Task: structure prediction
Amino acid sequence: MEALVQEKWVVGINYTLTVDDDVLDSTNPDGSDPLEYIHGIGQLIPGLERELSGMKVGDSRQVTVLPEDGYGEFDPELIVWLPQEDFPKEIPLQAGTQLQMEDEEGTVRVASIIDVDDERVQVDMNHPLAGQELHFEVSIASARPATEEELDHGHVHGAHSH
Ligand code: ZN
Result:
């Protein structure tokens, strides 16, 4: 069977993520440490995963992902003031501090502190890439069927995990 990117396969990709001409993230340029994920279970942002479907090992592609298929639109309602006592002592309460917070639905979000006053902390719970158009240069390094155990656990078992 030809190794195509398809549901429930473990896929290795090399990629470079560019936003506004700045490279924000990439795998090793020499291809020595691709990102492995299980295709079709939502481990990648939807706009990227969809474009990878059907690609072959060795294929490469440029993919542009709009906010609605990426990290969402920027939502001003996700900027909130919270009482200082809500924050664990070890978190430095100053602008620029990044932390993880649970929203009302229990989803863990990356948040950053943007302002602090005497009693409160202003936090932006938008994903740092919310509202951004993402440009990926991506190539397929490997593809194999996931094992039952990997599908069960919802992650890849390889050199880098348990
Ligand atoms: Zn596992």
Summary: Residues 46-52 form the longest helix (7 residues). The pocket of zinc ion is lined by residues 153, 155, 157, 162 (CB under 6 Å).
